[in-house]
Specification:
Elements lengths: L6 E2 L3 H7 L21 H5 L3 E2 L16 E9 L2 E9 L4 H29 L4 H7 L1 E11 L3 E11 L7 E10 L4 E2 L2 H4 L4 H8 L7 E2 L9 H17 L2 H8 L6 E3 L3 E7 L7 E7 L13 H9 L3
Parallel strand pairs: 4-5
Antiparallel strand pairs: 1-11, 2-3, 3-4, 5-6, 6-7, 7-8, 9-12, 10-11, 11-12
Helix pairs in contact: 1-3, 3-4
């Protein structure tokens, strides 16, 4: 399997495969994945809404709506995801809520499909095996944008340890569409070199549970991340940035990017870059940038 030690965000299960967590029940068979591509309509019947989200939006934003948390559960799966309320256009509100719900449930289906591909014989067996807990963080909630980052903690029987990965959804409110990374950024050698040598931020690894975070540990982790990143070929990074499911996010002042890293380094890392530092790489035809650059005041 062609992978490198530092890979950009993919699915939870791919991360498990790459780090060598082999379940005792592994079949290692490729199967017809059509059985796994089930409609998310069937899944959403099990959703239950909880009163409010623990995630508070950036108070510096001009809020166009409120957010509540909904939860999807299935066996050992618990997925929390946001839903909007109080939007002036009820049709648009329903459209956006369906986008959010279907996006995270489709991501869950990808996890199941990867388990079937690498370990289990069918969808039912994979669903029985997977334990997954998904929580979300509202990175930006404004009149133009909703940016959500999910943190996924999961495991399968026989794996050496649980794994953490991330998923994101970024929605343009006016058009009611999901924004893909490749539709926002001119992904080329110039952009990749900026990311490799980012000055306005550093890749920040997320410490593993039970490991005390110290300045020395953070320094070592960042050094390892920088070393791994510098060894990557530009083409590899370009391919990964172009993936439909590459995870990134917006904040009021920064553009956030994520990366899968080895479990020993924390499973995933984030970097936040000033919008001004990538202004030349933005696709100007995308209206989303206007609000962010203006809000930042050309910093």
């Amino acid at each position: 399997m062609k992978k490198i030690s530092l890979i950009l965000v993919g699915s939870l299960i791919i991360s498990i495969v790459l780090t060598g967590c082999s379940p005792k029940t592994a079949n290692n068979k490729n199967n017809n994945l059509s059985k796994v591509q089930q409609s998310t309509d069937k899944l959403t019947n099990q959703n239950t809404e909880v009163p409010k989200s623990n995630n508070k939006p950036d108070t510096g934003n001009n809020l166009a709506f409120n957010l509540v948390a909904s939860t999807y559960t299935n066996k050992n799966i618990k997925i929390n995801y946001p839903q909007i309320t109080g939007f002036s256009d009820s049709n648009k509100q329903n459209q956006i809520n369906n986008l959010i719900k279907n996006d995270i449930l489709n991501d869950y289906q990808k996890d199941i499909a990867n388990l079937v591909k690498y370990y289990y014989k069918d969808n039912a067996q994979a669903e029985d095996a997977l334990t997954e807990d998904v929580n979300y963080y509202i990175k930006l909630n404004s009149t133009k944008l909703l940016s959500v980052l999910y943190v996924k903690n999961g495991s399968i029987p026989g794996s050496a340890h649980p794994n953490t990965s991330v998923h994101s959804v970024n929605i343009a409110i006016e058009s009611g569409t999901i924004l893909k990374f490749k539709d926002l950024i001119n992904i080329n050698n110039n952009f990749v070199e900026k990311i490799k040598n980012v000055k306005s931020g550093l890749w920040i690894p997320k410490p593993l549970p039970g490991i005390e975070t110290t300045d020395e540990i953070n320094k070592e982790l960042r050094g390892a991340l920088a070393s791994n990143l510098s060894m990557l070929q530009n083409k590899d990074l370009i391919d990964q940035f172009n993936a439909d499911d590459y995870s990134y996010y917006f904040t009021k002042d920064y553009f956030g990017m994520t990366s899968d890293i080895p479990h020993a380094l924390g499973d995933y890392a984030e970097v936040e870059i000033k919008y001004g530092d990538i202004k030349d790489n933005m696709k100007p035809e995308n209206e989303v940038w206007k609000e962010l650059i203006n809000t930042q005041g050309q910093k």
